Amino acid sequence: MPELLLPLDGKLLRRNIARACEYKRPLAGLKSRIAYSAAHVVADPFAEQNPQTGSAIDWESTLAYRRYLWDWGLGVAEAMDTAQRGMGLSWPAAQELITRALADARATGGLIACGAGTDHLPENQSVTLEDIAAAYEEQCGFVENQGGRVILMASRALARTAHSVDDYATIYSRILGQLRQPAILHWLGDMFDPKLAGYWGTADLDAAMAACLSVIKSNVSRVNGIKISLLDKKREEDMRRLLPAGVRMYTGDDFNYDELIAGDGAHHSDALLGIFDGIAPAASAAIQALDGGNLDGFRKILSPTLELSRHIFQSPTYLYKTGIVFLAWLNGQQKHFHMLGAVQSARSISHLAKLLVLAEESGVLLDPDLACHRMGLLLELAGIQ
Q: Where are the alpha helices (DSSP H) in the chain?
């Protein structure tokens, strides 16, 4: 039974890590909920990786991870913030990622949607609303020309340039009106990206929700759904009750996804979650249980993963990508723990040690022996033997 000396709660404690994942891949597609996993990218460990230079991707491992997610019946939300958009993944790299992932999705029948935004605009220069609209048009056009569904990502440029809710309505209506198929909107809270503070033209979240709902209702035939990532269960429940018929709520709440996906009997959320990247077996098994009408089984599988997710997404929330990639490395899904922009150093050894313990308790470690071996290597580098 693997045992490690781990820095936990300010002490060095011995822990046995033995529970292995026992969940089974689905024999058919998941039915009761649409579940997208926002997928991470695997960096090329032999390339220069720092925040000031371009970053290189290990394409073989990156695409293999998407096939792993599809094998569990999950969809892939491609080139999103989990893939380090705005935090290491450039638009040219995102274009190649989208092209390759869409080709693999067509070959395997995997569900996929792709992020389109304005992140190729310079952040240190002022831009106009026309510049922002043109940037959205460029990225959305690229995704659709590759055959993909657009996830219309929140725009840092729009957040700093818009002067009113009307500016948002003008931009969104213009872009949605040009799309070939309905898009998924993406409302990302400032805990995930501080540069998106005041999105929808106001710091008042009630007013922001009203502005967002107005955009959706004005373009209802062009909207497949909306993902909100505000880590506010009640606000998501309130908003999904007000959505027009046929428009889906995709939860992006990595703190409360179990209850939101289960629903309240009248309404439920589908999922577009970063944490599903790390807990794909549990997420799949839980929805399989729901497909069979076993709500208790769904909760029994998914609820124990919440503590792990809340740990990975703890403040500063935008550093959650480090935990997601670390878990993929522990599980043998990639050969190294290196990230675009060298972001693997963003979380402490204590944070990562607790992540290992919570992953085991959640039942999402594929091979505890391998996970302990790799954790041991990291602990030795940290001076803990």
A: 59-71, 91-108, 129-145, 156-161, 165-176, 205-218, 233-242, 257-262, 275-278, 280-291, 295-302, 306-312, 320-330, 349-362, 368-381
Cα–Cα distance measured from residue 162 to residue 38, given in angstroms and rounded to the nearest whole number: 28
Q: Which residues on neighbouring strands pair with residue 116, listed in sequence order?
A: 152
Q: Are 112 and 76 in contact (CB under 8 A)?
A: yes
The architecture (CATH level 2) of 31-317 comes to Alpha-Beta Barrel (3.20)
Secondary structure (3-state) at 352: helix
Q: Given its phi and psi angles, is residue 293 left (phi above 0), alpha (psi -120 to 50 degrees) or beta? A: left
Structure tokens at 46: 């032999």
Count CB atoms within 10 A of the CB of residue 127: 17
Q: Could you give the angle at which helices 368-381 and 320-330 cross, rounded to 10 degrees?
A: 120
* Strand 223-229 to 183-188 pairing: parallel
> The whole model's pTM is what?
0.96
Residue-wise pLDDT tens digits, 298-337: 999 999 999 999 999 999 999 999 999 999 999 999 999 9
CA-based radius of gyration for the chain: 20
How far out from the chain centre does Cα 186 lie? 11
**Cα dist. 26→21, 23, 70, 282, 349 in Å?**
15, 9, 10, 11, 35
